[in-house]
Design goal:
Layout lengths: L6 E2 L4 E4 L3 H13 E2 L5 E5 L5 H6 L3 E4 L7 H6 L7 E4 L6 H11 L2 E4 L21 H9 L15 E2 L8 H17 L11 H11 L3 E8 L2 E2 L7 E4 L3 H9 L1 E5 L11 E3 L7 E7 L4 E6 L3 E6 L4 H9 L2 E3 L2 E4 L2 E7 L2 H12 L7 E4 L4 E3 L1 E9 L5 E9 H7 L5 H19 L5 E2 L6 H8 L5 E7 L23 H4 E2 L1
Parallel strand pairs: 1-3, 2-4, 2-6, 4-5, 6-7, 7-8, 8-24, 9-19, 11-20
Antiparallel strand pairs: 9-22, 10-21, 12-14, 13-14, 15-16, 15-26, 17-18, 22-23, 23-25
Helix pairs in contact: 1-12, 6-7, 6-13, 12-13
Length: about 475
Amino acid sequence: MPDKKHTAFSGRLVIVGFGSIGQGVLPLLLRHIDMHPDQIAVITAEPRGEEVASEYGVRFVEAALTPDNYRTVLDGWLGRGDFLLNVSVDVSSVALIELCREKEALYLDTCTEPWPGFYTDPDLPPAARSNYALRESALALRVGGTGVLPPGPTAVLTHGANPGLVSHFVKQALLDIARDADPETATETPTDRVGWGRLAERLGVKVIHIAERDTQVAAIPKDPGEFVNTWSIDGFFSEGSQPAELGWGTHERHFPADARKHDFGSQAAIYLLRPGAATRVRSWTPLEGPYLGFLITHGESISIADYLTLRDGEAVRYRPTCHYAYHPCDDAVLSLHELAGKNWRLQSRKRLMMAEISKGADELGVLLMGPRKGAYWYGSRLTIEEARLVAPHNNATSLQVTAAVLAGVVWAIEHPRRGIVEPEDMDFGRILEIAGPYLGDVVGVYGDWTPLADRESLFPEDLDRDDPWQFKNIRVV
C-alpha cells in the first residue's frame, strides 16, 4: 500500500474512544497525513487498545467522558486549529461539536451519539429515541437551524462507512446509471442537492437500500450468552434497540400500520413502533443474491432521502424511500436471535471478531431500484485477506469504516471553515479517491431482482405487481 500523504496537519489530534475503529484508523492517519505521533492523544473510557497506542507512540489517557467532566478533561487538549475525532459510544456528539466550535477546532464523528441511557430510556417515546431526532439536534447547531452552512470550524457529521461512505456511493451510482442510460450524452456532474435530486428523479430511482452482507467467519464459534460481532457490540446493540427508521418516498401508497410520522424537522423519514433489530426486509447484493436483512436505523436513511428531496413550493414532488438492509455475520445473527429471546437484554459477554476470523468478506453498497435498466448495486467487496494485507488492526468491516474516517478527516483538514456538514455536502470524488485503495473491489452491478421475485410460491400474498418498489412489497414482518 503506497504511503501517499494526502495532506499535512500541524495541530493536535484528539481521538475520543479507542475501540475497533479508533485502533484501526490510527495507522491510516499516520500513514496518509503528514503529522507526528506526538501530536495525537487518545482519550477513552477503558484500557482496551493501550498496546496499540503504545505501538504507534501516541499518548493514551484512560478517562470516561461524562456530562459533568467532558469540558474539564478536554480543555487542555483542544485549541484553535486542533481536531477532535469522535469514534466513541455514550459521548454526546452535540456536546462535543459545541465545544469544538468554541475552541475553533475541527470535528468528525461516525454517528450522532447521545449520552448514556438515551437509546433504551423507557421514559422517552420512540420518536425521541430516533436517529431522526438525533440528526435534527445536530443540524439545529447551524445558524438558526436553517440548514445554512455558516463560516466556522468544519464539523463533519456521521462519516464512517454507513452512514458516510454510502452517500458518496449513491452519487457515483447515479452517474453510472445516467451514463449507461444514454452513453452518447455526457452527463454533467450535479453541483448541488437540487441537481442530484433532479438526476435521481429523471432516472426513475424510487428506492435506495444500503445493502450489506457480512460473511466473515471466526474459527471460534459463538457461545450461548455471548454477543459476537465484527464491529462494536455496544454500538450495534444501541442502534438495533432504536425504532426501525426509513426515508419515506413519494411513490409510496401503503402506510404500515405501526408507522408514525414526526411532528418536527424535515419530514423526510418515518419510524416503526418496533426495534430495527426485530424488523427484516428483503434485499439483494451481487455476490449474496437475495437475502433477508435487518432494518437497522442509520443516519444515512434520513440524510440521503432528505438530500434528494425536490419540492414545488412547500409540496414535496420527489423523494426516494431509503433504508438500511443489513445482514451481519452469521454469529451476529445468532447473537441478535438470542438477544431478542431475552427481551432485548444484552448478553453479559461480548466478543469483537478480529484475529480469529478465518475467512469471509463484507459486501457493502447501495442498491438503487426503479431505473429502466434494472436494479443497480454499487459498492465495496472487501475480503478479510485483503483487509489484513493493506492495513493492520482491521477486519473487512472495520476497514470500510476506517477508510471513510481517514477520507473525512483529510477532507475536513482541506476544508477547515465549512461549518456543520453531512456526507452529502462533501466532495464525493475526493472521498472515494482517498478511501478507494482500502475498499477491495469497488464495482457496479446491474440485476433483475425485485422484492417480488419468487414470492407467492408457497402462500398467497397481497402484492402490487404494478409497483414492486413500494415498502408494502419490501417489508417482511
